[in-house]
Task: structure prediction
Amino acid sequence: MSIPTPHINAKLGDFAETVLMPGDPKRSKMIAEKFLEDAVLVNDVRGVQGYTGTYKGKRVSVMASGMGQPAIGIYSYELFAFYDVKNIIRIGSCGSIDPELHLQDIVIAQGACTNGFYASQYKLPGTFAPIASYELLEKAVNEARKSGANFKVGNILSSDTFYDDAQSGLDWCKMGVLGIEMESAALYCNAARLGKNALCICTVSDSLNHPDEVMTAEERQESLLKMIEIALEIA
Result:
């Protein structure tokens, strides 16, 4: 495939080697405006905004992924395969299923379980275990420690269902899974297949164990800033 791709209208070289990837296009815009210097809009196909600028002198890009494994599967594949992006760091929210995790805590996803079938495309004679790039993982852990953040490192669940009729979320806690989101497994699969690096960092926005804990919209937005800063520092 040549560029521009069906989903990204940027030119080759428009993206930095490292792309931060929130789900929400508005959050992508906020990060570019709040944290990046000289940020330039490089993609706006389907309203999925991508920007490139500098952070502390380092060239960094940020582009939204949309929701779910199919969406991040498309965008991360095209960035890795056609735009020479080497690292993608997903920054998003998750629901915690670990009772020790509370609102605004951070989950650094060492691995990504899933109830989806994204990895079935590889026709492997078994079950593939999607994991993060250790280089990015180690840097994120060190940076989280320096920042004083409350965080845990471990498995996350990439679910294809937000409204889960079986209500099986807490079942995954039996296997030590920390939280639930909807994208990381596909991102990790693409990185493995294409020889690139990926990491997911999530802020806990709600909890199945502590349903009485709630955040206002403003608190939710502010709680994401520490996660964003960790990602930018390792970019």
The chain has one domain: 18-234. The radius of gyration is 17 Å. The mean pLDDT is 93. Residues 7 and 45 are 6 Å apart (CA to CA).
